[in-house]
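Progress note, sequence design subtask.
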C-alpha cells in the first residue's frame, strides 16, 4: 500500500523513512486514497485470509510428536542418578473401561447404602464428559474450568449435565468471572467450598456428581449440596479403599493395563545405565506385585533398589510421624524396627524425612515421576529440591488434535484475525465499528470451535482460549518435564525461550502457530 520499504531493521528508537508507523507508536494504517474505511477493512481481511491459507506449508499438521517429552525447566537426565516412580497412571496406565466400572459401583453404593433414589440406576458413565483439572464449587453445585488467573472460562460452567448461562455464572460470583481461590480453596485444591479434581481417577467422580445433580434437578428434588458432595466422595473412596477396583484389575490385567512392554524397556535401560530405581505408591503390595509381574516379569523387584507401598501420599512427603514397616515376601507385616532400607525389600507407610535420612538421596540428582501434580510432585519440588516428571496421559490425545488440519487452520486464522482487530481498532466510525463487531463475533466462533475439538463441555485441559488453565499453570510450576507416558529418559532438555508479551515485537521469527509469520510482522519490525 505504498513505497517499498528497506528490509533492514531500523536502529533502536528510530523508524526507517517510508515505513508505516505501528499503532503502538500512536499512528494508524491509512486507507488508500479514495477508498472508504469499510472497503479498506474488508480488503485487509481478505488479503490476510488468503495469506493464512496460502502460507500454511505442506506437512504442517505433523509438527508435534504425541510421544515426546516436553520440558518446563532445563534438565540433563545424564546428571540424574536416582529415578523414582509412582505406580497408578505412571508405571501402570489403565484402560478407560476402568472409569465405567468405578462410576457404576459408586452409583450402586449411593443407591444401596446411602439410600439415594433408585432412578439413579438409569445413569451410565459418559466417556468424555469431564476433563482433569476442573474445580467444583460445593455450595453452588458448579463444575467449571478456571484459568491460570483464577477466572472461569465462560461456557464451561455446568450444574448437573447442563451448562449454566454466562450471565448467571457472573451473577453468582458478584458480577465477575473471577473466583477467589485463596479464600475458597487450599494449596492442594481441597478447600472447604471449592475442590479441584486433579487425578485421572476423578473423571468418574465428576461424572457421577453431575449425574446425581441432574437427576435431582430434573425431578425437582431439593438436596443439600454439602451432603451430596460428601456422599459421592465417600462412595468413590469406598471403591478404592475397600479394594474393589484392585480386584477388577487383578482379574483381567490384559484388559485393564496398557503399555506394559514399554515400561520394561525403560526400566531395564535405566538399570543398564547404572541408575538406581525406587517406587513409592499408595497401592497395596499384592496389587502392585501382580501388575508389575504382568508388565515387567516375575523378577521385577530386582530392578528396584527400594519399593514402598501404601505410602499415604501426600502425607508421606509432609508428615514425620509414621515410621517404615517391613513386609515379607508374602506381603505380611513385620514388627522389627527399620534402621536401613535394603535393596529388594518391601516397605509400607513411612515418611520422606526418614527416607532421605536412610538413603541420602537428596536434591537434583533425584527425579520422581507421578501423575498427580499435588500428591506426587508439589512437595518434592518445592520443599526438597527433587526434579520431577509429570505423566499426563491426555497429552497424547490433545497433540493428535493439534496436529489436525482443522485445528491448525482454525488457530492460524484466529491468530491472524486477532492481529487485524488489534491493528484496525482505531477506526471508530459507524461502518467500521460494524465491521469490527463482525470480526469479533467470528473470532469468538472460532475460539468455541477449537475448544470443542478437545471436549465439547470443557475444552482442553491445558488452555482456556488464549490463557493457560489453572491445571496447566500448576503443571509448569511443579514439573521439570512432562509426557504422556514413561518414555526414553536419557537426554538433556533445553526448553525454548518463549516471548513475554512485552518481548513479542523483538521476536522476528516468532510464529503464530509454528508454521507462519505473525500478521503485520513487517510493521512490527520497526517497534523498538
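Output:
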Amino acid at each position: 500500500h505504498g513505497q517499498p520499504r528497506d528490509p533492514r531493521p531500523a536502529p533502536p528508537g528510530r523508524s526507517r523513512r517510508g515505513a508505516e508507523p505501528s499503532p503502538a507508536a500512536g499512528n494508524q494504517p491509512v486507507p488508500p486514497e479514495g477508498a472508504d474505511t469499510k472497503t479498506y477493512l474488508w480488503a485487509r481481511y481478505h488479503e490476510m485470509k488468503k495469506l493464512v491459507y496460502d502460507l500454511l506449508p505442506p506437512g504442517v499438521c505433523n509438527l508435534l510428536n504425541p510421544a515426546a517429552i516436553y520440558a518446563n525447566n532445563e534438565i540433563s537426565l545424564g546428571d540424574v542418578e536416582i529415578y523414582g516412580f509412582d505406580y497408578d497412571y505412571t508405571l501402570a496406565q489403565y484402560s478407560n473401561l476402568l472409569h465405567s466400572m468405578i462410576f457404576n459401583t459408586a452409583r450402586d453404593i449411593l443407591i444401596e447404602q446411602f439410600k439415594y433414589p433408585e432412578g439413579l440406576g438409569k445413569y451410565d458413565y459418559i466417556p468424555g464428559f469431564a476433563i482433569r483439572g476442573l474445580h467444583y464449587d460445593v455450595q453452588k453445585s458448579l463444575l467449571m474450568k478456571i484459568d491460570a488467573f483464577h477466572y472461569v472460562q465462560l461456557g464451561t460452567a455446568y450444574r448437573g449435565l447442563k451448562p449454566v448461562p454466562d450471565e448467571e455464572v457472573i451473577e453468582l460470583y458478584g458480577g465477575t468471572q473471577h473466583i477467589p481461590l485463596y479464600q475458597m480453596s487450599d494449596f492442594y485444591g481441597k478447600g472447604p467450598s471449592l475442590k479441584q479434581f486433579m487425578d485421572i481417577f476423578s473423571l468418574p467422580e465428576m461424572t457421577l456428581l453431575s449425574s446425581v445433580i441432574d437427576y435431582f434437578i430434573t425431578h425437582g428434588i431439593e438436596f443439600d449440596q454439602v451432603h451430596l458432595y460428601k456422599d459421592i466422595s465417600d462412595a468413590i473412596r469406598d471403591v478404592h479403599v475397600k479394594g474393589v477396583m484392585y480386584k477388577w484389575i487383578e482379574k483381567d490385567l490384559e484388559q485393564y493395563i496398557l503399555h506394559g512392554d514399554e515400561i520394561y524397556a525403560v526400566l531395564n535401560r535405566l538399570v543398564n545405565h547404572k541408575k538406581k530405581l525406587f517406587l513409592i505408591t499408595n497401592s497395596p503390595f499384592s496389587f502392585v506385585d501382580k501388575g508389575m509381574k504382568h508388565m515387567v516379569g516375575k523378577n521385577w523387584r530386582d530392578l528396584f533398589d527400594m519399593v514402598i507401598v501404601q505410602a499415604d501420599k501426600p502425607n508421606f512427603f509432609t508428615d514425620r510421624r509414621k515410621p517404615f514397616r517391613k513386609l515379607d515376601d508374602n506381603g505380611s507385616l513385620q514388627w522389627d524396627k527399620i534402621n536401613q532400607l535394603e535393596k529388594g525389600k518391601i516397605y509400607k507407610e513411612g515418611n520422606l524425612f526418614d527416607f532421605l535420612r536412610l538413603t541420602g538421596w537428596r536434591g537434583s540428582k533425584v527425579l520422581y515421576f507421578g501423575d498427580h501434580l499435588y500428591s506426587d510432585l508439589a512437595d518434592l519440588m518445592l520443599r526438597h529440591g527433587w526434579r520431577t516428571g509429570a505423566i499426563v496421559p491426555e497429552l497424547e490425545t490433545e497433540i493428535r488434535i493439534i496436529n489436525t488440519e482443522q485445528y491448525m487452520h482454525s488457530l492460524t486464522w484466529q491468530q491472524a484475525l486477532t492481529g487485524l482487530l488489534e491493528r484496525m481498532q482505531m477506526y471508530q466510525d459507524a461502518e467500521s465499528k460494524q465491521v469490527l463487531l463482525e470480526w469479533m463475533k467470528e473470532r469468538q466462533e472460532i475460539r468455541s470451535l477449537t475448544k470443542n475439538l478437545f471436549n465439547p463441555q470443557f475444552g482442553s485441559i491445558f488452555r482456556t482460549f488464549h490463557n493457560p488453565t489453572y491445571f496447566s499453570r500448576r503443571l509448569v510450576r511443579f514439573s521439570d518435564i512432562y509426557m504422556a507416558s514413561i518414555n526414553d529418559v536419557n537426554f538433556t532438555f533445553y526448553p525454548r525461550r518463549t516471548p513475554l508479551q512485552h518481548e513479542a515485537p523483538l521476536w522476528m521469527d516468532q510464529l503464530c502457530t509454528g508454521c507462519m509469520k505473525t500478521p503485520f510482522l513487517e510493521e512490527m519490525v520497526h517497534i523498538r
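The first strand starts at residue 70 and ends at 71. Work on this subtask will continue into the next period as scheduled.
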